[in-house]
């Protein structure tokens, strides 16, 4: 009987996994869906940050300038050189099957308003803006697989990827990431726990997201826990006053509120993630001056945190509304030091 090389068997298993089929099912190689990038310099460019992409080639040492890019990430990512980024954070659509939307309202004091507020005062609400996107994919893993392969290619040897997902797809995505990165490159499963929103009475309310952490090389990755903001002890009476004053390092369960409705971070973009959880990733897994990538960038939280901490960023999204929000949030991109 003819023996099948191990690498070929792994490719076949990956193809089967992306379809949710048994081990014998085979379909065309997922990687074959990668398309050759078109001439990016020739595309119409709505802002200076997009025009600068023309100087990114396969020989580039780094992206050169902070960028906010509008387009399909599967077309744009191949333009960047391998091992360009120290950190990749992605928060892809969760495949909820719903239309994700967020409304921004303004309350106006009015005697006959439809809402009742503090001390019986009446208010009416005015819709200021609304943003949305459709969160549904017929074959979610096949959508993710070539993009995750690009993420691995773009990571430096010391680099780390943080993959943000919810309970609906986390188990499937973990198996896909094990296949692309290798199980030995799995570093952590982080649980972001929050306590906000409606509560069902038919099951345990889902109040957490999952962040799967993978490294490019398990023998070389950068992780500096001393740079991470510490948090209060839950039982301060059990530790010394010195430890109470210093705080403790976060574990793999992160209790952190969502973006406050009236907070300074709020952009109005659906599914916006708080800066606090992304800050921990950037502090631990990068150094000042390093490059960070988010190719499902949404409201641009990674870029905001990277700029605050002296890192550089490339943000990509296919939604023009997201790109406009990021431009407003981050203003002009910065040129990297040579």
Could you outline the blueprint of secondary structure elements for this entry?
Elements: H1 6-19, H2 48-51, E1 67-70, H3 73-76, E2 85-90, E3 98-109, E4 115-116, E5 122-135, H4 140-154, E6 155-165, H5 170-181, E7 186-193, E8 208-215, H6 241-246, E9 253-255, H7 275-285, E10 291-294, H8 301-308, E11 312-317, H9 320-330
Parallel strand pairs: 1-11, 2-6, 2-10, 7-9, 10-11
Antiparallel strand pairs: 3-5, 4-5, 6-8, 7-8
Helix pairs in contact: 1-4, 1-5, 4-5, 7-8
Number of strands: 11
Low-confidence stretches: 17-59, 95-105, 127-135
Largest sheet: 8 strands, mixed
Structural class based on helices, strands and sheet pairing? alpha/beta
Give the oligomeric state: single chain
Large-scale geometry:
globular
Give the spatial strand order of the biggest sheet: 1-11-10-2-6-8-7-9
Number of domains: 2
Classified by CATH, the class of the largest domain is: Alpha Beta
> What fraction of residues sit in β-strands?
15-25%
Name of the CATH architecture of the largest domain: 3-Layer(aba) Sandwich
> How much is the radius of gyration in Å?
22 Å
Question: What's the average pLDDT?
Answer: 77
Helices and strands, in order, run as HHEHEEEEHEHEEHEHEHEH
- CATH topology term of the largest domain: Rossmann fold
Straight-line distance between termini: 57 Å
State the helicity in percent bands.
25-40%
The number of helices is 9
| CATH homologous superfamily grouping of the largest domain | Vaccinia Virus protein VP39
């Amino acid at each position: 009987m003819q023996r099948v090389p191990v690498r070929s068997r792994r490719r076949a298993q990956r193809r089967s996994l992306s379809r949710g089929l048994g081990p014998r099912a085979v379909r065309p190689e997922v990687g074959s869906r990668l398309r050759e990038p078109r001439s990016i310099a020739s595309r119409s460019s709505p802002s200076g940050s997009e025009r600068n992409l023309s100087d990114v080639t396969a020989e580039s040492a780094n992206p050169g300038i902070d960028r906010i890019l509008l387009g399909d990430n599967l077309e744009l990512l191949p333009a960047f050189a391998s091992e360009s980024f120290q950190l990749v954070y992605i928060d892809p659509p969760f495949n909820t099957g719903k239309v994700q939307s967020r409304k921004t309202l303004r309350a106006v004091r009015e005697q006959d308003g439809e809402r009742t507020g503090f001390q019986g005062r009446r208010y009416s609400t005015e819709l200021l803006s609304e943003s949305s996107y459709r969160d549904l994919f017929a074959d979610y893993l096949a959508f993710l697989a070539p993009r995750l392969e690009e993420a691995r290619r773009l990571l430096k040897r010391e680099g780390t990827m943080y993959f943000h997902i919810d309970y609906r797809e986390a188990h499937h995505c973990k198996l896909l990431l094990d296949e692309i990165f290798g199980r030995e490159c799995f570093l952590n499963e982080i649980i972001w726990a929050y306590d906000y929103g409606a509560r069902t009475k038919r099951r345990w309310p889902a109040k957490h997201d999952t962040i799967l952490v993978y490294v490019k090389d398990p023998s070389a990755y950068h992780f500096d826990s001393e740079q991470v903001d510490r948090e209060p002890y839950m039982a301060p009476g059990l530790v010394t006053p010195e430890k109470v004053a210093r705080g403790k390092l976060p574990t793999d369960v992160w209790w952190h509120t969502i973006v406050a409705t009236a907070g300074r971070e709020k952009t109005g973009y659906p599914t916006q993630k708080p800066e606090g959880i992304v800050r921990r990733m950037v502090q631990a897994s990068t150094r000042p001056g390093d490059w960070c990538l988010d190719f499902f960038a949404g409201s641009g939280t990674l870029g905001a945190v990277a700029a605050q901490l002296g890192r550089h960023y490339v943000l990509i999204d296919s939604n023009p509304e997201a790109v406009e929000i990021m431009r407003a949030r981050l203003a002009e991109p910065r040129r990297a030091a040579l």
